[in-house]
Amino acid sequence: MKSELLQQLKPYSGRKVLVTTKQSTNYIIKELLKAHSENASEYDKICEQFWTGNEKRTLRKIFDYCKKNIRYEVEPDELQTVKSPSAIIAQGKGDCKHYASFCNGLISAINRKYGTNMNNVFRFAGYNIGATEPQHVYCAVRLSDNKTTIILDPVLETYNNEKPATFIKDKETMLYRI
Question: Whole-structure pTM over 0.90, yes or no?
Answer without folding.
Answer: yes
